[in-house]
Amino acid sequence: MSTLLIIGGTGFFGKSILDVFQRGGLARWGIERVIAMSRHATRLRDEAPWLVAERVELLCADIAQVDALPAADFVIHAAASTDARKYKEQPAQERRNIEAGIDNYCRLAGRYHASSKIVYASSGAVYGTQPADLEGVPEDFISDDQERIPEEKREYVYGKRAAEDAVRQLGAQGLSISIARCFAFVGPWLPRDQHFAIGNFLNDGLHGRPVTVKASKQVYRSYMHADDLVEWLMTIAAHAGPECPCYNVGSEQAVLMGELAHVVAKQFDVPVSVAAITDADIDRYVPSTRKAARELGLHPTRDLQTAVAESILSVRQAEVNKLKAGR
Prior knowledge:
Elements (H helix, E strand, L loop, with lengths): L1 E6 L4 H11 L8 E8 L5 H4 L8 E5 L13 E4 L6 H6 L1 H22 L4 E7 L27 H22 L3 E7 L2 E2 L10 H10 L4 E3 L4 E4 L2 E2 H13 L7 E4 L5 E2 H12 L3 E3 L7 E4 L4 H7 L7 H22 L2
Parallel strand pairs: 1-2, 1-4, 2-3, 4-5, 5-6, 6-11, 7-10, 8-13, 9-14
Antiparallel strand pairs: 9-12
Helix pairs in contact: 1-7, 4-5, 6-8
């Protein structure tokens, strides 16, 4: 029997992992017990009680402050706020939160997870601003235009880079560590009231509103389904080692925001409102995943249309589950 510890266990990543676990999707790694750790972990019993069934333990703890950690065969460290509003309002504090969480984990890992397989969920943001003519950014990309990073994103970028440097030191100490640079995703647990474009589009559709695109420039994104995200994270964790391998996680299927709006709107049969393109800049955030394919045999199993359709079905099923649970 193997145990998985999810640090940041009740956010989008955590809920997505628990969802897959409840459907038997972690059996190939021998996972029979999951510990979901976050500052307010027990709230999950009210938000999605069907995710907290037998063999799931909720642990209320702040990774930046704890002095002990539960033993686990696999560890996914995914604790960091992704709320863009917080980074805009208090960027320095949010950067400190990222660094405090990973620094304290690194302080404890040698004692509690010396034999664990560990993956740190980093971000594709560490590459800085992706050149408009680079279709997919590879793991060895080095940006030379750091001043072009939007001010509201800089502290997040610098915090994630510092966190990666810290976890590499765990590898230097002999621990089995890996880094997953995560891009953009879609799934039933993606927040629909934050800065995630596809989350906002889904929210529009679910409420019968026109799917609205406000961007006045060409914005390219790609979206991996949450189930594929979980498979990739677990595979990357299983291949962790002292050399600290690093892999991009996401889809290479780039889509313009206007096109994405039409994909989502079609699912709900609602109209689309797309702003005119008046800005010559191109905003591209799309990974190259050739390394993960070549070394780990990983490939997304769903195209964009399928990922969106399945996410909508899952959202609606979650609503049914809430009614059944009396919440």
